[in-house]
Amino acid sequence: MDTKNKIALVTGANKGIGFEIAQKLGAAGCTVIVGARSEKLGEEACAKLKASGVEAIYLNLDLLKPETIEKAATAVEEKYGRLDILVNNAGIVERGDGSPINTSVDAVETTLRTNFIGPLRVTQAMAPLLKKSAEGSVVNVSSALGSCEFNGDRNSPYADAKFLGYSASKAALNMMTVQLAYELRDTNIKVNSVCPGYCATDINDNKGLLSAEEGAREPARLALLDKTGPTGEYRNTEGTIPW
Ligand SMILES: NC(=O)c1ccc[n+]([C@@H]2O[C@H](COP(=O)([O-])OP(=O)(O)OC[C@H]3O[C@@H](n4cnc5c(N)ncnc54)[C@H](OP(=O)(O)O)[C@@H]3O)[C@@H](O)[C@H]2O)c1
Fold first, then answer.
1. One of 166, 182, 198, 234 is an active-site residue; which one?
2. Predicted confidence (pLDDT) per residue in 28-55, tens digit
3. What are phi and psi of 233, to 5 degrees?
4. CATH number of 3-240: 3.90.120.10, 3.30.1020.10, 3.40.50.2300, 3.40.50.720?
5. Per residue in 165-216, pLDDT tens?
6. Are 181 and 137 in contact (CB under 8 A)?
7. Which of 171, 179, 210, 233 could form a Cys-Cys staple with 214, CB 3.0–4.6 A?
8. For ligand 1, atom 31, which residue shows the shortest CA distance?
C-alpha cells in the first residue's frame, strides 16, 4: 500500500516527539489525525502541519476521558472508514513518581491510567478501523525504562533511573505490544514498541540529549512499515532491545 494514501492517528501530537512523528508521517504523504487533549494546542499543531504541506485534522483525545476516545473513533469511522496507522505516543511522567519505597502511589496510579490504560482504550476503540486497513501499523511509544532487563542490570546506564509508575506503565504497554502482535498475527497489522531515546522535551524539562525530531525517526519508520515488516518487537534506532 502506498504510504501516500494512509490515514494515521498520533496521540499527543500537539508537541514534542508526537508532533515530529506527525510531521514525518505527513511528509511521507499520510493524512494525519492530530490527537490532543487541548483543542487550542491541537488546532495550532494542525495549522503548523498544514503550513508545511501536510494534510491534517485535529481530534480531541484525552487518555483519561474514555468518552473522547469513543468520539474520536466514531469521527475517524465517519470521515475515513478505516485507520492505517495508530501511534500511541501520548504519555506522562508524574511528579512524585520514584523508587518503590518512596514513590507516591497516587502518581503511580495516574501514570498507569495515562500511559497504559489510555493507550489500551485507544487501541480497542480503533481496532475495528485498523482491521479495515490493507496494511496497518500500531506503534507503542515506550521507553528503555520499561525494560525489565535494563532495570535489573546494575551496570545499565538507566540503573539509577527508578520511576516505578513510569517504568511499570511502559512495561505494561510492552506487554500489550506482545499480546496484540500475537492476536493480530494473521492480519496485515504490525504492532511494535519503540524507545525514541532520551529527547529534550517537556516530559523531562528539556534535559534530553536528542531532539524531538531525532526521537521521532524510529517511531515514524515503524509506523510506515509495509506488510513484510517486523511485528511484536521492542526497538530503538539501533535495533531490537531486551524486554
Ligand atoms: N522525551 C524522552 O526522552 C522520552 C524517552 C522515552 C520515551 N518517551 C515517550 O515519548 C512519548 C512522547 O513524549 P515527549 O517526550 O514528546 O513528551 P511531551 O513533549 O511532554 O509530550 C507528551 C504528549 O502527551 C500528551 N498527553 C499527556 N497526557 C495526556 C492525556 N491524558 N491525554 C492526551 N494526551 C496527553 C501531552 O499533551 P499536553 O500538551 O496536553 O500535555 C503531549 O502532547 C511519551 O510516551 C514518552 O513516555 C519520551
1. 166
2. 999 999 999 999 999 999 999 999 999 9
3. -110, 165
4. 3.40.50.720
5. 999 999 999 999 999 999 999 999 999 999 999 999 999 999 999 999 999 9
6. no
7. 210
8. 63
